[in-house]
Structures are given as structure tokens and as C-alpha cells.
Amino acid sequence: MPENKRDLSYLTSLPGATERLNIFNADLCNPDSFNAVVEGCIGVFHVATPVDFQDKEPEEVVTKRSIDGALGIPKACLNAKTMKRVVYTSSAAAVMFGSNKDVEEVVESFWSDIDYIRPIKRYGPYMISKTLTEKPVLEFSEKYGLDVVTVIPSFVVGPFICPKLPGSIHGTLTLVFGNLDELSFLDQPLIKK
Prior knowledge:
- By secondary structure, this protein is mostly helical.
- It has one domain (about 10-155, about 165-185): 3-Layer(aba) Sandwich (Rossmann fold).
- It is about 35% helix and about 5% strand.
- The protein has helices at about 10, 15-20, 35-40, 60-80, 115, 125-145, 165-175, and strands at about 45, 85-90, 150.
- The longest helix is centred in the middle third of the chain and has 22 residues, at about 60-80.
- It is globular and about 45 Å long.
């Protein structure tokens, strides 16, 4: 967002960035803002989502922004008429909470139970928004014949180039170092029995 100017030198200083990197402004609240971003592309990796781990916004606000933004990208991809595939990054949160049975494999019909997640204070709105966002993205792709593949990472770890510690790295280190009190949502069982 123009009013939130950030130092992007960690991106612009990457090898080859001068020749191959284009930076666009797009807003999840303005689905039309993605048209210029995907113009002429044959593939898109959709990895953005609104994240409010401090629970400053109501669940409904986070979820609406997530759904509107997530649907804006496939709509822009259809408008571009060059798209071959969209890779949508979901979350393990969309499939791991509230099953009434143990499973070895999660299939396409498996979704987290929103009513089970709702009482989880920390991360709850994020988990709900990821669950409720993936469904309309898949429905849209089926309706319009857009090739969408969903990736459901549990934790994203490894080297990172951004100047601050990503939340997924922090969460993983919290588990590694045994600081479970920082993961308050673990007070509830992950799977209902």
C-alpha cells in the first residue's frame, strides 16, 4: 500500500532482480487490483492472506477480506486469458481441526469444523478464514474451468529473505524450544475424539 512504504531492498537486491523482478501494488480489499499483476502470466502462486494473530479485527472482517482477495486473483486470471494454472496456498488449519475420527490421509472432502475452531482465541480467526476461503476458490475454479491446485502446508520453514522473523518460523521454533505456553491454542485437543 503506497501509504505504508516499506524497505523492499531485500527483494530488489536479489541476484537478477534488476532484470527479472517487477513489484506491483495490489490490495486484497480491491479484487480488481490484481488484473495488472497477472496480465500475460501463464501461472500464479497465490500465497497472500490477511493475518491478524493479535486478534485486533473480528473474525468476519478477516474472513471477508480473505475471501474477496482470494477470489480476486482467479477472476483476474480468467480475465488475462493466458493462465494455465493457479496454485492456491491454503493452510493445515483448513483441514486439521475437529474430526470425529483419526485419519491417515486427508482428502478433498475433509474440512476443519468452524464451530470447533471458534472458541480458540489465538489464531482462531486466521484458521476460520483459511477454511472458509479455500472453498469458494475451489468452487469458482470448477464453475469457470480454471485449473487451480491447492497446497496445504503445515509449517513453512527454512531460510527466509525478509528482514523480520516470519510467523511460521517463530511457531516452529516455539515448538522446537518447548515454549508451548506461547501456543495457547494447543490447550485444546487438535482432533475431537
